[in-house]
Amino acid sequence: MYLLVAYDVATSAPSGARRLRKVAKICLDYGQRVQNSVFECKVDPAQYVAFKERILKIIDEKNDSIRFYHLGNHWQKRIEHFGKNDDYNIEGTLLV
After folding, report:
1. Alpha-carbon distance 5 to 66, whole Å?
2. Tens digits of per-residue pLDDT, 33-83?
3. Domains of the chain, with CATH numbers?
4. Which residue has the higher pLDDT, 41 or 89?
5. Are 31 and 24 in contact (CB under 8 A)?
6. Nearest Cα to Cα of residue 88 among 39, 46, 55
7. From CA 49, how far away is CA 86, in angstroms rounded?
8. Predicted pLDDT of residue 38
């Protein structure tokens, strides 16, 4: 499945800055950053469950927000991109 993940972590306290770094690191384990707090991820259902569980253990639900947009099987037709791209290809090899 193809996901777009967007998050907003409150960083007014030092614990928020730590959460922000942890959330970004987890997102990098599953996909590619396309904006500061937006990731494109291609995962199978089991990976999605693990990904979501890891994120939900980190965020503070009273102050932070995360959204998972499920783009489905025909995601190529649902995405338009304009401007700088840095040769990103979700179908390509992901270097970890």
Report:
1. 7
2. 988 999 999 899 999 999 999 999 999 999 999 999 988 766 556 665 556
3. 2-74 (3.30.70.240)
4. 41
5. no
6. 39
7. 29
8. 94
Q: Which residue has the tokens 């942890």?
A: 22
- In 3D space, the residue among 24, 41, 35 whose CA is nearest the CA of residue 75 turns out to be 41
Question: How many whole angstroms separate alpha carbon 90 and alpha carbon 93?
Answer: 8
Short-list 41, 40, 37, CA closest to 7: 37
Q: Are 20 and 11 in contact (CB under 8 A)?
A: yes
Residue with tokens 């306290």: 13
The pLDDT-based confidence of 7 (bands split at 50, 70, 90) is: very high
Q: Which residue has the tokens 């253990």?
A: 57
Q: Is 34 helix (H, G, I), strand (E, B) or coil?
A: strand
Contact present, 67 and 7 (Cβ < 8 Å): yes
